Amino acid sequence: MKMDIGGEEKFDVPIETLWQALNDPAVLKQCIPGCTDMIDEGGDHFRLILNLKVAAVGGSFEGAISLSEKQPPSQCKVAVSGSGTLGHGDGSATFSLASEGNGTSMRYSGEGEIGGLVAGVGQRILRGVAKHLIGQFFKALRTQVAPAKP
Question: pLDDT tens digits, residue range 60-76?
């Protein structure tokens, strides 16, 4: 089953701060929902171990994420693939950053394909799950880039 994602998020940090966070494996590990391990395989390629639970359905996954087509500090492509107890999937997304006043606007768009048991729950439900996971990612990213409070 194919899925498209896209949207725009605003951050109250300079573009350079957001760019650095999006390219920092330690930050990404904290932001990717269910990520229990992120192993650097060199050259912006990482192996991921995920344990996800959404409502009553959960499972473990092993996959890969890579960053490419970088145009610092404004654009990058992210490719993800993985498989696990509930199915398999792969996809890619491009994000673009633009300075807006004292903050940064991020636009993202991508597509993915999933199969296996998880694909059987239906596209409407999966869209809701995807939206939830994307929301968790951005909430965690905001926490990671927030200025430290005195």
Answer: 889 999 999 999 999 99
